[in-house]
Amino acid sequence: MGKLKNFIIVLMVFTMVLSAIAVAVAQESKQLTVGYVIPYEIGWFSAFVKGFELVAEKEGVKTVRLHHNYKADEETKAVENLITMGVDGINITAATPESAEYSCRLANEAGIPIQVTESGVAEGKGKPFADIDFNWNEIYRYIARNLRNDIEGPISIINIQGFAGTPPVMQGIAGFKDEISKLNDMKLSTDVQYGDYATDKSLSVMKTLIQSGLEFNVAVGSCQEITEGIIQALREENVPRNQVYVVSVNGGPMDVENLKKGNIDFCLSQSPGLHGMICAANLIAKLKGQTYQEKTYSPVIWVNQKTWEADLIPWDMDESWLPVVNEFIKTGQYKPELRVR
Hints:
The chain has helices at 2-29, 44-59, 72-85, 97-110, 136-150, 167-182, 199-211, 224-236, 253-260, 272-287, 308-311, 322-331, and strands at 33-38, 62-67, 89-92, 114-117, 130-133, 155-161, 186-188, 193-194, 218-221, 245-250, 266-270, 295-297, 300-304. By secondary structure, it is an alpha/beta fold. The longest helix has 28 residues, at 2-29.
């Protein structure tokens, strides 16, 4: 009787192990389809798409891409459409933290894993399995601290941000203002301005500030297009280049050209291309039953005229970055030295 009992136990364990292996094999072999929702497909998000698609193609995963134009109702429709299509997983850059929570609720109810990026999630029933973001609050604190370390004497800052009321902008402003209040001899020269991520509007805003007689010695553009507007305004208003430190938050192709020309002094380098790769790899790892990150921030680095060529994280990604991404998904550590050159 005892031998029969032991045999049954061994058989049960063997069956369980075999079932687990079968599930893992099925997950690996099944043609997965993931959907992702982004605001639009220009600038930053164009690079994000290229990074996301690079990983998906390498992993043999189909993708469906939808847009919401920073409108919560369009985000909801997009998520509902993905659910109707029966995608295996969803990645969403939400319009607001509240819309992110509702999107998560819809996906949760449908039993589809959902990952949120660059928007945060409001309190509620809807929960993502992962939140992959840039720590915008800490990024702007980091910028403030680096400015204080790198510039001697009093600092008076103009900061032109993107769209008012969007999560990254609100989080960044909160961190920037709070950190500045803690640092010696440092202030905003005027309230934060908004350039809507556009060169023309930022040019107009900056020219108006200069013409008003506002005193400042640092100008921070919160994306490469805004920074280009700042640079053009300084030039058109005949502000001597050595009177203003120009700072950009991006490190995109336009910033690279301005760094080459000496038009930018400091840059917060962050890559939407690498971010897109990380988001895709993390979602796919979850669907394949592999190690993934539940909460992490994509890497950023502070560069200047002396360091940018070696340290700046490019927007244009290729397969040489896959080992860096795989390490990040497993450990949360950014190790650019793993890049295959």
